Amino acid sequence: MTGFIARSIGLMFLLIVPTTWACTTRSGGGGYASNLTVRAFYAAAPLGTLITPWHSMFGGADGHTYYFGGCSSTDRIAITARGSSSLRYVAMVTVGGNQYAAYEVTPTSPLFIFDHVTEIGSLHNAGKVTTPVTDISNIRSQGATPAPGGAGGRDKERTSYFQYALVGRGHLMTGLPSTLVVNFTSYPDAYPSLNINTSLTASIDVEMPTCAPADTTVTLDDVSLGELNAVGKTSGAKDFSVRMYCSGVGRNMTISLIDANNKSNIGTELTPSAGSDAQGVRLQILRSGAPVRMGSSWNGGGTSAAYQNVDLTARYYRAAVGARPGLLGAKVTLQVDYN
Asked: What class is the 25-206 domain?
């Protein structure tokens, strides 16, 4: 009988799972303040029109002091961010081919849009990834990709910061006093307690559109007293336009004419300028064929970011029985008010 010896052999398998380095430190964060100016040309810009340059929310001479340290030098580090604020969502807009959520502080303020930016390193600026913000309460970036063998591949820091800009809202906007706009908290996905907090306080000055009338000289042709042979007779009518350049759109204008030689004049006959020696004849300004009463006003419509004309007519008017030929001049100020 042959004996058999059974032996059991234990096999041990060691499963080695590659580990990903997590970030272990953070640097930077804090408050960022900005004073913004919206030029009059953009005061009533269409919804989604970019009306300021992009501004970055970071500090330091090199601009990159908001970063996580001790990260993997070879892996992408996904970063999540959330914004808390009193901003109110208004609309989705397209800027530079990207979709953004646009937010207001007040119903007439310019709209804020945001980018979240991640980069390799705090100085190298490698592998930049820009994520347009479409929901301020839920922002996630896959993170920058290290460059193997390059500066980015050796760097264990990940910059994380925000950019913002203003866009138009489709009607005339107003400014904003210094206001806390938003506070962002960003952190590596795996370590939410390792966070960077950055706040934005901003004031906005919106320049209101105005119109500048050009100096205009109108020379009427000579006429004889025979053409003005009775009180109330008129002659020598000539059409002209006062050209105005308006710096923006969206403001309603009220236009009036003031007798520059007699500001209290509320009639239709202009006070002669110094050097005039004609008697019994005055000058009148007409609008749409009717004499303009000095000091009265009319609706000039809305401003546009271009040249606009105010069309008028000048003529002679026989004002008194006794008349004598001579030189006759007058000055009128065109006044534009806005509402």
From this structure: mainly beta
pLDDT per residue as tens digits for the range 215-228 = 999 999 999 999 99
- Distance CA(304)–CA(252), nearest Å, equals 10
* Whole-Å CA distances, 131 to 84, 138, 201, 254: 18, 12, 22, 46
What are the start-end ranges of the H helices in the chain? 151-154
Question: Measuring CA to CA, which residue among 256, 219, 255, 253 is closest to residue 239?
Answer: 219
The answer to whether the CB of 200 falls within 8 A of the CB of 57 is: yes
Q: Which residues pair with 307 in a beta bridge?
A: 245
Topology alike, domains 25-206 and 211-338: yes
Can you tell me the distance from the alpha carbon of 268 to that of 96, in angstroms, rounded to the nearest whole number?
Answer: 55
CATH of region 211-338: 2.60.40.1090
DSSP classification of residue 75: S
* Residue 32 scores a pLDDT above 70: yes
Domain residue spans of the chain: 25-206, 211-338
The helix/strand/coil state of 210 is coil
